[in-house]
Design goal:
Helix content is 18%, strand content 14%. The chain is of the alpha+beta class. The termini are far apart.
């Protein structure tokens, strides 16, 4: 009886261990890896054809600007009007610079050609004056203290055109270097220098007009010598 108990205990221990989860199940046999498919051979790359050199582009030919046509309803500005300067109703005043690469004899002399179009060297589109700037300009023209002796030369590079809509009705041309002005129509309270409508400015009024020119952003307002307008070499 004693020997049979020892044998039974020898079998009972492993069974108890398996019941408590200590026995691992038998491992499955390893699965064989699938065979590797052979890769297709790489096709050789076709040689790249050399590109032809680009043909040089012909320079674009600038088209000539279309000629300006006379403004609608324009009539030549008279030398004199009964109501003075400008003597008629206007809606806008524009400031212009011209002959900026002309150091000797003027090409334009005044902003407008005889048909009312802008002269060829005028810088377009000009600058419109504000209402306050227009009052300042007209106020200067109405004062006798504006005028002076001027000088014998006249090489203008700046001017003002009075417009009624799109039609010019009056103009001024100014030479700051010579302290001279030309007006059409004439300015009643100004003292003419010579037979035409040329007027001398005094140094103070010239400085005021230069200041207006700068405020408007026009070029070359402070030039003091004709050589400053020489064309580049």
């Amino acid at each position: 009886m004693h020997r049979m108990g020892r044998t039974a205990s020898r079998f009972a221990a492993p069974l108890l261990a398996c019941a408590l989860g200590g026995c691992a199940p038998p491992s499955a046999p390893p699965t064989a890896a699938p065979p590797v498919e052979p890769t297709a051979p790489v096709e050789p790359t076709a040689p790249v054809e050399p590109t032809a050199p680009a043909e040089p582009t012909a320079p674009a030919i600038a088209e000539a600007p279309e000629p300006e046509v006379p403004p609608p309803g324009f009539t030549p500005i008279p030398a004199k009007r009964k109501a003075g300067f400008p003597g008629v109703a206007f809606t806008e005043v524009r400031a212009f610079a011209f002959d900026l690469r002309v150091a000797e004899r003027s090409v334009c002399g005044v902003p407008l050609d005889a048909d009312g179009t802008l002269c060829e060297t005028v810088e377009r589109p000009g600058v419109a004056l504000t209402e306050a700037q227009t009052k300042l300009l007209l106020g200067m023209l109405a004062k006798q203290s504006t005028w002076g002796s001027g000088s014998s030369c006249f090489l203008p590079h700046h001017g003002f055109v009075f417009y009624d809509g799109a039609t010019p009705v009056a103009q001024l041309s100014i030479c700051f270097m010579c302290e001279m002005m030309v007006a059409a129509p004439s300015i009643p309270k100004a003292k003419r220098l010579g037979a035409d409508d040329t007027y001398g400015l005094n140094p103070k009024s010239t400085a005021q007009l230069r200041g207006l020119c700068r405020d408007l952003g026009l070029p070359m307002c402070d030039a003091t010598n004709p050589a400053e307008f020489a064309p580049p070499e």
